[in-house]
Task: structure prediction
Amino acid sequence: MSDSAVVDASKEQNIDKSHPVVNPYSSSKTKYYTLGLLTVVYTFNFIDRQLLAILQESIKIDLTLSDFQLGLMTGPAFAFFYVTMGIPMARWADRANRRNVIAISIGLWSFMTAISGAAQNFAHLALARVGVGIGEAGGSPPSHSILSDIFPPEQRASAISFYSTGVSFGILFGFLFGGWLNEFFGWRVAFVAVGLPGILIAVLIRVTMKEPLRGLLENKQGAARSSLIEVVSVLCTRRSFIFLALASGLNAFAGYGGVNWQASFFIRSHGMSTGELGTYLALISGACGAIGVFGGGLLADKLAPRDKRWYVWLPAITGFICVPFIAYTYIASDPYVGLLSAVVPGILFNVYLGNAIATSHGLVGLRMRATASAILFLVINVIGLLLSSPVIGILSDYLSADYGVESLRHTLTILLPTAMFLSACCFYLASHNLREDLQRAPS
Result:
C-alpha cells in the first residue's frame, strides 16, 4: 500500500499518529447503544417497506388497481431504485461518515412514506415508493460496515443478526399497526402515522451516534480504499460468494413473496379482516422471525470455531425444513391451520441473513465491507424484491381465468416452496469452497 493511501486513511479517520488512537467504542455501553439504535433504524426500514402489504387490498379497492399494479408497487417501483442506488450509497459510505449517510437516508424514506397517504392514483403512490426505495438504499450497507468495525469477528454474525431482527420487528409492527390503523382510520392515516417518527430518529442518529474508526479492532486502520471493480473482482472469484448470493436471493424470493402476498391470500381465500390477520402475521413473521434471525447468527457463531462452513450449512438445513411447511400454509383449507403451519418458516426464513452478511465481510478487505453488503443485497433484492412480487402478480392474474379468487393460492403453492428448496441447495454448494475463500481474503 502506498504512503499516500496511509495518509489519506489517517486523515479521514482524524488519526494523529503522534498520539495513541482513542476508540470511541471502547465502552460496551456505547457499542450496544449503537447496535440498538441501528436496529431501530432497520425496524423502521421494514415497517415503511412492508406497510403496503397489509394495506394493499384496501388500496386496490380505493384506487381500482390490478394484481399486476400491486406487484409493481411492492416490487419494481420500490425495488428497482432500492437496488440501483444501493451500490452508490455503499461506495459513499465506504468513503464518508457512515452515521451521516444513515441519518439522511432514514429522513428521506420516512418523509416519502408519510406523503404516500396523499396519493390519489397509481402513479402518485408508485412515485412515493420510488422515494422510499432511494432512501432505504442508504440504510443497511453503512450499518453493516459500522457493526463490523465495533464488534470483533467472533461476535460479528451475532451482532449483525441482532441488527437483522429489525426485519422481523419491522414486519411485526408494520402488520400490527398497519392492520389496525387501516381498519379504524383507513390506509392514508396508516402511512402518515408510520412515516413521521422516522424523521425524529434521523435527528437522534445525527446527534447521539458516533462514527467508529475503521479497522481499529483488527489493526487495519491504514487499509487503502478499493474501487468498485476491485470489490466485484474479489467477490466474483469466490465461488462460495456466488452460491451464497444466489442462495440468499432465492431465500428472499420465498420470504418476500410470502410477506408481500400472505395478507392478500388470507383475505381473499379465507375472508379474514385486516385487524385480525395483521395481529397473526405480526406474531408469525415478526416475533417468530426475530427469534430465527438472531438465533441463527448466535448458533452459527457458536458452531463456527469448529468449522466455518456452519455459516452456510445452518441456512441450508433450515431451508430444507421450511419447504413442506410453506406449501401447507397455502394448501390448508382451515385458515388457522394454515397460519399455524406458517410459524415454522416464520422462524426459519431469515436464519440466513446475519450469516450471509458476516460471511461476505469475511471474504473481502476492510474498505470493501459496505460495498460487499450492497452487492449481496443487490442480488437479494433483484431476485427477492424486484422479481418476486410482479412474478407472483402476473401468474395470479394468468391463473384467475381458471381458478378465480383461488388463483393466488395456487401461485404461492407453486413458487414459494420451489424457491426455498433451490435456496437450500445453493447454501450447501457454497460450503464447498468457503474455508479456502475465507483464507484468501485481502487485508
